[in-house]
Amino acid sequence: MEETISLKELFETLKKRLLLIVSITLIAAIVSGIVSYFFLTPIYQASTQILVNQAKNDQGQYNYNEVQTNLQLINTYNVIIKSPAILDKVIEELDMNMTTAKLNEKITVASEKDSQVVNVSVQDPNSKVAAQIANKTAEIFQKEISSIMNVDNVSILAKADVSENPSPIKPRPLLNVAIAIVVGLMAGVGIAFLLEYFDNTVKNEQDVEKILGLPILGIIATIDDQKMEELKTRRRPKSSTRRGETLGS
């Protein structure tokens, strides 16, 4: 015999474990907020743009084949920008106490589809350092690419700058707290149903009927001591009155 769970039973389970669900959700939100605000280091990002110039032919018009060649070379440029040939010079000129591999992790190079613009983004706990690394990487790449690939078609389109009040890109405390609330709520509901599933105690007549598979013929009501005393108190005046009437007669 397959057991079915009604929607009413689901709501009763949630109502029964509501305190547990709310507690888990609040704990998850508080822990996420504390970690995001006090333990995670803010990370800032600075970006610069490099333009792969369109070569011109003798008639002063853009050559389609030259443009396509530049587009195909962008992927190569993306690799060269993060190569030791460029990053070693960046570390040397900025006098950074950092390995090439560590600097490579801070830099992200990307380009839009069918675009000749390459975006160089740098992430660092210091916003000024991030801007310095981005600008220096673009500058050294522009100088070195002519000797590496024997081309001279790269120019810096926009330099990275630092605003007066820069905002970190991560962590995002409010987003982290919102995610923690959702995760905590899901975990609380899951634990509530799990506890209900493993709870084998008999709590009411419906549980007896489910376990034994027999219909319930009757229920013996429970009366607490207070109610028993109230019933005895109500019966005593009637008994005294009847005795008085008997003696008077």
From TrEMBL:
Renumbered residue ranges of the record's region Disordered: 230-249
Keywords: Cell membrane, Membrane, Transmembrane, Transmembrane helix
Transmembrane segments: 18-40, 174-195
First-listed, main subcellular location of the protein, grouped into a coarse class: membrane
Record localization: Cell membrane
Span of domain Tyrosine-protein kinase G-rich: 142-194
Every Polysaccharide chain length determinant N-terminal domain range: 3-94
Membrane association type: Multi-pass membrane protein
Family assignment from sequence similarity: Belongs to the CpsC/CapA family.
Protein name (database record): Capsular polysaccharide biosynthesis protein YwqC
Annotated source species: Neobacillus rhizosphaerae
